[in-house]
Amino acid sequence: MTPAQKVQEQFAPEILEAHVFRGDEMITIRASALRAVAQFLKETPELDFNFLMDLTAVDYLFYAGGRIAKEWRFEVVYHFFSLKYNHRMRIKVALDEKNPEVDSLCDLWACANWYEREVWDMFGIRFKGHPNCKRILMYEAFQGHPLRKDYPVNKRQPLIGPQI
Amino acid sequence: MTPSHASANFFTSKLTDALGWARKFSIFQYPFVTACCGMEYMATNASHYDQDRFGAGFPRFSPRQSDVLFVVGTISQKIAPVLKTVYDQMCEPKWVVAFGVCTCTGGFYDNYATVMGIDTIIPVDIYIPGCPPRPENVIDGLIKLQEKIQKGEQSRGLYDPRLKTGRPAGMQQGYSIEGQIKHREP
Amino acid sequence: MTETRSMLLNVGPSHPATHGVIRLIMELDGEKIKGVEVEIGYLHRAFEKMCETVMYTQCFPYTDRLNYVSPLINNVGFALSVEKLLGIDIPLRAKYIRVIMSEISRVTDHLTCIGATAMELGAMSVFLYMMQAREYLYELIEDVTGARLTVSYVRIGGVKADLTQGFADKAFGKIEQVRQVLIEVDDLLTRNRIFFDRMKDVGRISPEEAISYGITGPFLRSTGIAYDVRKASPYLIYDRLDFDVPTGTTGDNLDRYFVRMAEMEQSLRMVEQCLQQIPDGPIAGDLTGCIIPAAQMVDRGKMGQTQEFIEDEVTTDPTLQGSTRKYYGAINAMRKDVVLPAKEDTYGNIEGLMNHFKLVMYGHGLCPPAGEAYFPVEGANGELGFYIVSDGRDKPWRVRVRPPCFAIMAALPKCLIGGMMADLVPTFGSVNMIAGELDR
Questions:
Q1: Could you identify which of A28, B86, C384, C436 might form a hypothetical disulfide with C379, taking C-beta atoms 3.0 to 4.6 angstroms apart as the criterion?
Q2: Which of A79, A86, A111 sits opposite C232 (nearest CB)?
Q3: Which of A135, A137, A154 is the mutation pick for testing B, counting most B CBs within 10 A?
Q4: pLDDT of the residue at B71
Q5: Which residue on chain C is closest to A140 by alpha carbon?
Q6: Which range among B44-53, C18-27, C268-277, C286-295 shows the weakest confidence by mean pLDDT?
Q7: pLDDT by residue (tens digit) across A83-136?
């Protein structure tokens, strides 16, 4: 059984979507199930996902010009890797824009700390239980979350210099 | 003119020339290195394209002890106040070299995080465009800087993007959309 | 009444020992480091946002400037991700060329890292030797791609141009020169008392902590875990090459130095093997008959011997556009919806012109199917992964680069706390932080 099938078997009611595209397995789950799934992936001996390779988010506002319908706005994407079995897994958490909040994984993997700060900085998604959630790439005086689709690409908020 | 005035002017102009000659061959640079241009700066400093033969081989890593500020690499909005502080800490006479197109006009990083040209914050004497400039370009810029130092000229003005004054012709890119915010088309 | 407080020292954004801009707020008790807070983001250039505003092929210059000491590895990673999305495969010669250029880039990265670290520890001549070795490799890169540093050489579906004639001989010569430099540097540094004492047992990290922080690359291999993306999930033609993955034992700075020096030797070995194994392009074969070199044609023309020119075919450099149609099939996947046609076709017939237009006009262009793909590549610092989400149109919806040194910088406080202030310099040098990749 592949890791995705094991997760689907264990967490069937929480799963919104599951498919395989170009050899990558990915599962979309509800925000409430994230901690349980992450602990399952890390602690199950046959899965043993000890690396959290990447933690990022995608904003699906007006995806494909509206031609492809998406029920939620944000997806937080987790890439897991197992050193022992050399398999990978992608978990996506679906969030809507009214309440973009998800559990933090800082106590399971130490790298989640900085990755989650970056997602907060760029997208405005809050992580419950994060010890130090402040901006990491932008400066504190910056208002807004730049990687959201409704933030214009060249709207500058300069600290010094001409205010344009 | 009485002979004494003429001889006084002769001596002061010779003194200015001598000072300029001394200054141009002993450039103590502060390399404010941020990004990829730093690699070409290191290559210009190394033995292949030696910068030391122009007297500019020993960087001084303190603004109080240097006279030329080499701004190498993209300046983001977050580090712009630091750049201004470093410039203010330098003692007169001081010159600024904008190394790389990101410092000249902003390069192709027309976004929320980049300063489109450092001459909006500090006055710039020499612009060395290129992404990154080849070491030969850098040496060309260095020689032009030496000519400027010999004459004792320094730039003082900033670039005003609304009036588009203060930058040499041919460098008028950068804030090409002043006031207009570019949205991604849906 | 005495009161003891620790000192807060700001190792500021612009500092000679920090390669690039980063801020370390250190809490010191005399010379001992009690706490470190790392502040990044001083070179945030919005790579991910810019990639959403331009077409796929226009993203390549932005990827060059991510890890700017090994730009070709970033190019290759991005191209492989998009090709995974599209589901296409590239010709064998193009794969070999990508591997050759990637490994040369990896050597330039390690040369710069060790050179800069040694310079900060006082070994100025080592820095100059490393820069000289790097210049030899830049000459090779410049011959093929046209630029020294920011190359934008790789294209989706292949590479921009074939290798030049005589590249193999020149490369073998340069590799020998680089090996000589590495032998000299080894003599200068490895048994040098000062270097050894400053690097040994400094900046240690345990394997469990390294895994928890998501660290990969030479940093992880120095702790003893032999994880290399080229061996674990081989891409391009790494499964045909014979190379070792050097590992350390203790996870300190000295092990990282040894791992990098050994990796450089392995990369040079890989380039030599590739040059021996590479399948010939169409320019193989002798130049007798009615194919003459361009310089000879010019000479004959100057002397007035212009008969039969109309039947003669001229060989020019494969990097010169306008002469590349016969090399094209060997270095590009011949897919009309992905790869630009050769210039002879673009300017020669209407089908080529329309094909070219359909690939470069806004609104058209190469459109991968809607979906997402993640492709990990072995960068010089670790696993460099590109996660690309496509919406079926000509511009990417989201491009995410997984920066290898982001994880390492998050673990930097762990390496530094308990050491001395002066240990900051070699530790930071061995981390090989590239601000372009860290802040994007």
A1: C384
A2: A86
A3: A154
A4: 93
A5: C41
A6: C286-295
A7: 999 989 999 999 988 888 999 999 999 899 999 999 999 999 999 999 988 899
What own/partner pairs with CB < 8 Å and gap ≥ 24 does B135-141 have?
A: B135/B40, B135/B43, B135/B44, B135/B48, B135/B49, B136/B49, B138/B40, B138/B41, B138/B44, B138/B49, B138/B51, B138/B99, B139/B44, B139/B49, B139/B51, B139/B54, B141/B97, B141/B99
- B135: tokens are 């070491």
The answer to whether A137 contacts C439, with C-beta atoms less than 8 Å apart, is yes
Q: Chain C 373-392, CB below 8 Å of chain A: which residues? A: 373-374, 376, 383, 385, 387, 389, 391-392
Number of domains in chain A: 1
* Per-chain mean pLDDT for chain C: 87
Q: Which residue of A56, A86, A146 is in closest CB contact with C49?
A: A146
Determine whether the interchain pair C13/B111 forms a contact, defined as Cβ–Cβ distance below 8 Å: no
Q: Is C206 on the interface with A (CB under 8 A)?
A: no
Cβ distance A164 to B111 less than 8 Å, yes or no, reads: no
Q: Nearest chain C Cα to A88, which residue? A: C374
Domain assignment present for B14: no
Chain A positions touching B83 (Cβ under 8 A) are: none
Q: Is the dihedral of CA C28, C32, C34, C37 positive or negative?
A: positive
Q: How far apart are the first and last CA of chain B?
A: 75
Kindly list the domain boundaries of chain C, sorted by start residue. 51-279+375-404, 284-360
- Contacts with A158 from chain C: Cβ below 8 Å: none
C22 φ, ψ (degrees, to nearest 5): -155, 150
Q: Rounded to an integer, what distance in angstroms lies between the CA atom of residue B150 and that of residue A69?
A: 67
CA distance, residue A12 to nearest chain C CA (Å): 23
How much is the average pLDDT of C166-173?
91
CA distance B48 to B138: 13
pLDDT at C36: 92
- Find the Cα–Cα–Cα–Cα dihedral A102, A103, A104, A107, rounded to 10°: -170
Question: What is the bridge-based pairing of β-strands C291-293 and C158-159?
Answer: unpaired
* Residue A90 belongs to domain spanning: 3-115
Residue A159 in any domain: the answer is no
Give the separation between CA C201 and CA C205, rounded to whole angstroms. 10
Residues in chain B with CB shorter than 8 Å from the CB of A63 are none
Residue A80: its chain C contacts at CB < 8 A?
none
Provide the whole-model pTM: 0.91
Q: Do C20 and B131 touch (CB under 8 A)?
A: no
Please say whether the dihedral angle defined by the alpha carbons of residues C74, C77, C80 and C86, taken in this order, is positive or negative.
negative
Q: Is residue A63 part of a domain?
A: yes
| Cβ <8 Å between C439 and A139 | no
φ/ψ (deg, to 5) at A91: -115, 130
B109 vs A78: CA distance, rounded Å: 29
pLDDT 10s digits, C341-354: 888 888 888 988 99
Among chain A residues, the shortest Cα distance to B185 is held by A65
Q: What is the ipTM of this complex?
A: 0.94
CB contact under 8 A, A164 and B186: no
Whether residue A126 is contained in a domain is answered as no
Q: How far apart are CA A80 and CA A50, in angstroms?
A: 8
Classified by CATH at the fold level, domain C51-279+375-404 comes out as Cytochrome-c3 Hydrogenase; chain B (1.10.645)
- Picking from B78, B110, B131 by the largest number of C CB atoms within 10 A of its own CB, the best residue to mutate is B78
Q: Is residue A18 part of a domain?
A: yes
Q: How far apart are CA A120 and CA A128, in angstroms?
A: 11
pLDDT tens-digit readout, C70-103:
999 999 999 999 999 988 888 888 999 999 999 9
CATH at A24: 3.30.460.80
> Is C46 touching A (CB cutoff 8 A)?
yes
pLDDT for the residue numbered A22: 87
Q: Between β-strands B68-72 and B95-99, what pairing exists: parallel, antiparallel or unpaired? A: parallel
